[in-house]
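Researcher: I'm preparing a figure for a lab meeting and need a structural model of a single chain. I don't have an experimental structure, so a prediction will have to do for now. The sequence is pasted below. Please return the structure as tokens so I can convert it later.
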Amino acid sequence: MKLGKYSVKVLEAGRFGLDGGAMFGVVPKPLWSKAYHPGDEVNRIPMSTRLLIIEWDDRCMLVDTGNGTKLSPKYRKSTQLIRAILRYMLLSLVSESLPMQLLTLC
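Model: Understood. Here is the structure written out token by token.
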């Protein structure tokens, strides 16, 4: 997507499930399950984490809001693997003309 001189790319960093009731609050399950997703056997709905790569002029920025610090050890390991894969993808996508700062941030 182009926004003026900025080019924005979206990378999916992983998937996870959250409680549908917590996500939709006071909206009754029959409404959100029809409009979004019915949920699994324990009412979790699928969610995704996404990163933004913003490029302009000869600069590039990676935007990652993260998932917070309360991750289970199993989920933390899978997140580290996803980040390693993304780091590899970024190294293969980033041209040599972009600053090395991006690579150290990722």
